[in-house]
Each structure stands twice: as C-alpha cells, then as structure tokens.
Amino acid sequence: MLSQLLTSSENEELEFKTSFGRETIETLVAFANAKGGRVVIGVKDNGDIVGVSLSAETPQQWINQIKASTSPSVIPEIERVQHQGKDIAVLWVPSYPVKPVCIKGKYLIRKHASNHVMSLEEIANEHLKTINLSWDFATDPNHTVNDISLEKVNRFVALANALRHHPITDDPLTVLRKFELIREQGISFGCFLMFSQQPTLMTTIDAGRFDSETIIKDSLTIRDDLFTEVDAALDFIRKHISKRFAFTGAAQRKEVWEYPLEAVREIVLNMIVHRDYRASADAAIKIFHDRMEFFNPGQLPEGMSLEQIISGSYASSPRNKQIAALFKEAGIIEKYGSGIKRVQQAMRSLGAKDPEFELIGNTFKVTLYPMDSKAGEGVNEGVNEGANGGVNSLLTLIRENEGKRTPFFASALQTSEKNIERWLKHLKEKGAVEFRGAPKSGGYHIIHRGKPSN
Fold first, then answer.
1. Per-domain residue ranges for the chain?
2. Which 3 state secondary structure label does DSSP give 214?
3. What pTM value is reported for the model?
4. 202-368 CATH
5. Tens of pLDDT along 66-94?
6. Rounded distance between C-alpha atoms, residue 354 and residue 398, angstroms
7. Does domain 2-131 have CATH number 3.30.950.30?
C-alpha cells in the first residue's frame, strides 16, 4: 500500500508533507469535506523520503491537536510504517457524514491536488446535504405566513385532489404544515415562492420576442408565484410562435405548432422547478425567427456532467426537493429526472432538429429549433391555415382596412405576427397586395380586387 502511495502524485485524495503542522490539519479537513484522503508525513512533494521523528506518544498527540482544532472533530486513523530505514506516518480520514468540517472557523475542500476555501454557497449546500434537505426547505427569515395567499394554497389543493383517491379536506394552513411548508420557525423559502401574495424579484423570468439579435419586438417580465409563472411563460411563448391546422382525415382539424408544445412545457417546468433561486441572475426566454433559447441560473448538481444530463444516465436529485414534490403532488410534473429525455423525444418524433444543451458559466441553456413545415404525419400543407383560411382572412381584412400594418392584422386575426408576415409574402407573390409609403409609416394596400388563386 505504501509503495503504491509513494509512486503516486499528489491528487484529490493524497498529499505529502515533510512534517506535521497546521497545513496537515487543513488538508485533513479538506479531505473530510470532499471524498476523504491520506496525508503521508515524512515525504517531499516529489516523493523523496525524508522521514519523521515519531515517539510512542506522537500519534495520540497529533490526534488531540487535530480534535482541538476542528469542528465537528476530525479523528484520523494513523499508521506508522518504515520505508528505506526511515519512519513515515500515514493519516487517513473518510468523507465525513456531517459536513462541513472547519479548522478554527476556516472551511476548506479538496479539489484536484490542492485545498480551496469554500464559498458561502458551498458551505450552505454541504450543510443541507448533511441533513438531507434542499435550500427550499430552509426557513425564510424575511417573510411570514402573512405573505402567503391562502387562495393559491386552495388552488393547489384542487389540483392535487383531482389526482388523489382520498381528497385533502384540511384548511390551507393545516395543508402547509402537513407538507412542512410551515414549521415552528416560520415558512420555508419554497412556501413563499409557490404561494406568495405579491410579485417577487426572486422569481423573475424575462421573456422576449426578437426581430434580430438585438432588436426586441415584444417583452414580458414575469414575477409571480411559481405555479402562475408556468402558465404566464407558456402563454407568452404561444403568442409568439406560429401554428397551422392540418387535416388528417379525422372529424376535426389538428393544431400543429412550429415547436412541439410538449417539449416547450417540459423546458419551462425544468426552468421553474430546478432553478437556483439564490443566484443573482434572472431566468430568460428568447424567441427568434429560427430558434428559441432558455437560460436558467444554476450549475449542475455536484458529481453530474452535461453528458449525463443529455444521455439521461443519472440518478435524479432535484435541486429544490420541496418545490419538486409539490409540483408532482399537483400533477404538473410526472416524475423526477425524465424531462430532458421527453424534450428530446418530442422534438425527434416530429422531425425537428435535436435540442441543444449547454452550460455557460453558472447558467444552463437550452436551444430549440422549429419543426420542419412538412414534419408531422398526415399534415397537408395545401389545406392548412397558412395556405388558405389565413391568407383569405387577411386579404379580406386588408381590403377593409387599407394602410394598416402587421401588428394590426395579427391582433385582429388573433395570430402571431410571424404568421401574418408569411401570409403577406404569399399575397405579394400572387400580386394581390403591396406595401406603400415609408417603412415606418406606410401600410398594405390591395392591388387586385379578387381573391388570389391557390
């Protein structure tokens, strides 16, 4: 064992020291806060043996010094061995079950082959993991039950009861206590985020429809309770993506959106349920002509890679366990950890390009691309809304309101401006309408008084 250690380089679980001192204790603390590890005393960084003076009392003296300097107390195993005629000591600590460990108020963690001072976020996360809780379970010191809407709690109960064999019949405050959203110390962060009466900056989602990389056509800032934000975000997206109607031989025509709504909904839910609400950045949704981008604050869970997320080869560990549990109870999410896979399946089933997943700094980004206009079984492009009904309705509207522009037509026909632009292109190609006047003040006018041929 020693020979193997001596032929190794310093790494996440091994460090060499020529003598015992404060730096040795700091390394043991860093190991305890990470995966555990060994400090070999009497060896230089390059592996040269220098030995260390050891008496019969030395190991116990070191243990006493380590115990007195650390909290909770670190008690390493110490093995005394001889190599090349010199005494060497090997100190070993496991990954501690109670974290974080500190040395006189200093918190360290082992990363690669060196010790790093832990950030406040890392300290808090290690503590929460130790007690098997996530941040949203912690007590919110800035809000009380008076900041909670009991009407919103009742709406949650109604959603949950639609799925339960035995309905919830308790009053709203009792419901919150049973779900541990209210405890003796007060309400949890999760409780406030899910049922807040007033808008809160903590939940901000900035949504925008872009004409170019820098020009915003429409925007919305969403600041509400988490349940309401799901609907608000989806409504904004539906407003700014196009749909058409397909005839498949069934009695009713079928709506076909340029982005599968199932995939969009999964991404929005992931944004809201798994967001890091302690981060200073806001979540964002950006809709362009050729793609849709979602930005969500928060790094990946510890020990999980982007490759594992994309492949689905990981065990789910929700960042916000309390929020995820209530969304599941309400039937809004089905199960943990399968959202990314459902997004991929929804896009592929309709012939769309695969979504892209990226980690940019402390932000998780998802990019969706629109479905091909011919994708989707049974879709007949010749008789969809864009080719017939929408074009003809627009032509009639222009005839009755000459000189108007795209936003007016979109509002009047209750469709997206992108649809209007596509239909206008069709009418212009048919020689039915033309744009007259300056780009910022002109409008569309009829050329031919008949309907364009199809």
1. 2-131, 136-189, 202-368, 385-446
2. coil
3. 0.61
4. 3.30.565.60
5. 998 998 889 899 999 998 889 999 999 99
6. 39
7. yes
